[in-house]
TrEMBL record, chain A:
<feature type="transmembrane region" description="Helical">
    <location>
        <begin position="241"/>
        <end position="263"/>
    </location>
</feature>
<feature type="transmembrane region" description="Helical">
    <location>
        <begin position="447"/>
        <end position="468"/>
    </location>
</feature>
<dbReference type="InterPro" id="IPR050586">
    <property type="entry name" value="CPA3_Na-H_Antiporter_D"/>
</dbReference>
<keyword id="KW-1003">Cell membrane</keyword>
<dbReference type="InterPro" id="IPR001750">
    <property type="entry name" value="ND/Mrp_TM"/>
</dbReference>
<comment type="similarity">
    <text>Belongs to the CPA3 antiporters (TC 2.A.63) subunit D family.</text>
</comment>
<feature type="domain" description="NADH:quinone oxidoreductase/Mrp antiporter transmembrane">
    <location>
        <begin position="128"/>
        <end position="419"/>
    </location>
</feature>
<feature type="transmembrane region" description="Helical">
    <location>
        <begin position="107"/>
        <end position="127"/>
    </location>
</feature>
<feature type="transmembrane region" description="Helical">
    <location>
        <begin position="275"/>
        <end position="297"/>
    </location>
</feature>
TrEMBL record, chain B:
<dbReference type="InterPro" id="IPR039428">
    <property type="entry name" value="NUOK/Mnh_C1-like"/>
</dbReference>
<comment type="similarity">
    <text>Belongs to the CPA3 antiporters (TC 2.A.63) subunit C family.</text>
</comment>
<dbReference type="InterPro" id="IPR050601">
    <property type="entry name" value="CPA3_antiporter_subunitC"/>
</dbReference>
<feature type="transmembrane region" description="Helical">
    <location>
        <begin position="67"/>
        <end position="92"/>
    </location>
</feature>
<protein>
    <submittedName>
        <fullName>Cation:proton antiporter</fullName>
    </submittedName>
</protein>
<keyword id="KW-1003">Cell membrane</keyword>
<keyword id="KW-1133">Transmembrane helix</keyword>
<feature type="transmembrane region" description="Helical">
    <location>
        <begin position="26"/>
        <end position="46"/>
    </location>
</feature>
<dbReference type="Pfam" id="PF00420">
    <property type="entry name" value="Oxidored_q2"/>
</dbReference>
């Protein structure tokens, strides 16, 4: 059954190709086809979770070449968990996009680029080869640069250029560290690198490589102090793309790669987890402090992405079973509620044409679906029970206390309170209060947009159920075990061929 | 020695990205950084007086250049081309909108 693994890349690449080829002629290829194709990807990711649960780790050998000579694709608990997150969010964004992108010309190019980005992200998640990871990362990154500039307005272009310069520099650093890694271990297969590192023992070269990886992937994940491109790039993109970038791209390219390389390939040690803890806490606090002062709806959300990624990294950096479980759970939850919030902001922009919170007011009366779903998402991100954000934040804070890292736990609580403050501001300015004269005639958004917002809101409400023992054994436990086995990954991959 | 030159090239590129005020010069800086990294990767696989990595029948494998970095760098050059093309395209659009390449005058977005 390992033959389903390459399908994640193949389906999305084929879809991107077909859309770019036929999208300008036939309407089907720019409306229904993207939705069908991403639905297929969601079904495959659910299937992959059951497969991993039954068979354990699976390896697909590309072209029949046995690793470490050939390139291999690896599916384990962590990969299938990430695949589900990415493809689920992508599915709802496709439904939302059909109505939203009507204001743009060349809609088929939008969907083509979106699927190219999806192919890159799926590729990053399932690959078992370090250089292959770099290639997929660049596929996803280049299409996201183009998508940020899709509106071709003054601000979009400026943000895209800034994003591109930072992104290229990050990719350069990642490539440089891959080159150093190759010169040290003479192989590019991740499992094989892990094996020869275990034989060689540690040296100062490994420390240098680790630092380069942290800077490179930290730039991709927008950790403070590498964060300053994100608040420009994410708000300037079309709203569904912002949801995609903030919801899953920074996680697939940044957080996932950090977890994979530092836990499974290099092997975790006290210094890297210290660095991750400090970076996570910094992002958590600095992001939310910047967010409070913002009056641009999407820019505020972008700063919150930085802050929430800080929580994920904090959980991961604790390196205890509960911390990793909480971090991964928060990663899933954040991708759901942050995409929902960006979709809400897109709906508001669609109806009123503004992103300035001060100009809105009382929109709840005219746009009840948007207002209520954004209320659910706000409470979820602020960590109010019983929404999903509460459970994952609770897990992270408990894990901090268990690991005797009281200071970090305290910062996590402070970050959560500040998050709540800034989202109360959003609700007060945008959705509650008196309806302004100007917005007398606005209408609620079309059905497709409403549908995906309601579905995401439902996941927010019932997300806490993922912690029930039956479901969590299938999904979250499996994912955090894949991280916790550490360098055992090497033996499992090399043993299964 | 040649690794040191590679590092100097990298630093020149980084310097031009960080200090130059012109979009085109920033793009050139990015290309220089790209080339420095590619050159480094090639050097990793190089052996002194090595020959090309083509194995003929009945030949011994000795003093042969490592072929893997060459294949890898080829891919990386193609990626670099795509990124450069996109950067230049965006720079042209920026020039159409703002009428300048100077980044001091292109700052509508602020932290």
């Amino acid at each position: 059954m390992e033959h389903i693994i390459p399908l994640f890349v193949a389906i999305s690449l084929a879809t991107a190709f077909l859309i770019s080829l036929l999208g300008s002629k036939f309407k089907f290829f720019r409306t229904a086809f993207p939705v069908i194709s991403s639905a297929a990807l969601v079904i495959l990711s659910v299937l992959s979770i059951f497969l991993v649960n039954n068979n354990g780790l699976m390896v697909y050998k590309m072209g029949g070449w046995i690793p470490p000579i050939g390139i291999c694709m690896v599916l384990d608990g962590l990969s299938s968990f990430m695949l589900l997150t990415v493809n689920l969010v992508a599915f709802f964004i496709m439904i939302y996009s059909i109505n939203y992108v009507k204001k743009y010309t060349d809609v088929y190019k939008y969907f083509g680029l979106l699927f190219l980005m999806l192919a890159g992200m799926n590729g990053v998640i399932i690959t078992g080869d370090l250089f292959n990871l770099f290639v997929y990362l660049e596929v996803a990154a280049v299409s996201s640069y183009a998508l940020v500039a899709f509106g071709t307005g003054r601000q979009e272009l400026e943000a895209s250029f800034k994003y591109m310069v930072m992104g290229t520099l990050a990719s350069g650093l990642i490539l440089l560290s891959i080159a150093l890694m190759y010169s040290y271990t003479s192989t590019l297969n991740m499992a094989d690198i892990g094996k020869s590192l275990a034989n060689e023992g540690s040296s100062s070269v490994i420390i240098f490589i680790s630092v380069m990886f942290i800077v490179g992937f930290g730039l991709k994940a927008a950790l403070v102090p590498f964060h300053w491109w994100l608040p420009d790039a994410h708000p300037s993109a079309p709203a569904p793309i912002s949801a995609m970038l903030s919801g899953v791209l920074i996680k697939a390219l940044g957080v996932y790669a950090i977890i994979r390389i530092f836990y499974n390939v290099i092997g975790s040690n006290i210094y890297t987890s210290r660095i991750l803890l400090v970076l996570g806490t910094l992002s958590m606090i600095v992001g939310v402090i910047f967010a409070i002062g913002q009056y641009d709806f999407k820019r505020l959300l972008a700063y919150h992405s930085i802050s929430q990624i800080g929580y994920v990294i904090l959980g991961i950096g604790l390196a205890t079973p509960l911390g990793i479980l909480g971090g991964l759970f928060h990663l899933f939850n954040h991708s759901i509620f942050k995409s929902l919030l960006f979709l809400n902001s897109g709906a508001v922009e669609y109806s009123t044409g503004t992103r300035d919170l001060k100009k809105m007011g009382g929109l709840n009366k005219k746009m009840p679906v948007t207002g209520n779903t954004s209320m659910i998402a706000s409470m979820s991100i602020a960590g109010i029970p019983p929404f999903n954000g509460f459970w994952s934040k609770l897990l992270i804070i408990i894990a901090c206390v268990e690991a005797n890292e009281y200071i970090y736990g305290l910062f996590a609580v402070i970050g959560s309170v500040l998050t709540m403050a800034s989202f109360m501001k959003v609700q007060k300015y945008a959705f509650l209060g008196k309806l302004k004269e100007k917005w007398k005639n606005i209408e609620e958004v079309p059905f497709g947009m409403k549908f995906s917002m309601i579905c995401l809101a439902l996941i927010c409400v019932f997300g806490g159920l993922l912690l029930l023992p039956e479901i969590s054994n299938l999904l979250l436990k499996e994912a955090s075990n894949a991280v916790l086995i550490g360098k055992e990954y090497v033996n499992q991959v090399l043993g299964s061929v | 020695m040649i690794y040191f030159l590679c590092f100097i090239l990298f630093s020149i590129g980084l310097y031009s990205i960080l200090t130059k005020r012109n979009l085109i010069k920033i793009i050139i800086g990015i290309s220089i950084v790209d080339y420095a990294i590619n050159l480094f990767f090639i050097l990793v696989g190089y052996r002194m007086n090595g020959r090309s990595p083509i194995l003929e029948k009945g030949e011994e494998i000795e003093r042969i250049v490592d072929p893997l970095p060459q294949a890898v760098v080829l891919t990386s050059i193609v990626i670099g081309l795509a990124v450069t093309a996109l950067l230049v395209a965006i720079a042209i659009r920026i020039y159409e909108k703002y009428g300048t390449f100077d980044i001091n005058e292109i700052k509508e977005l602020k932290g």
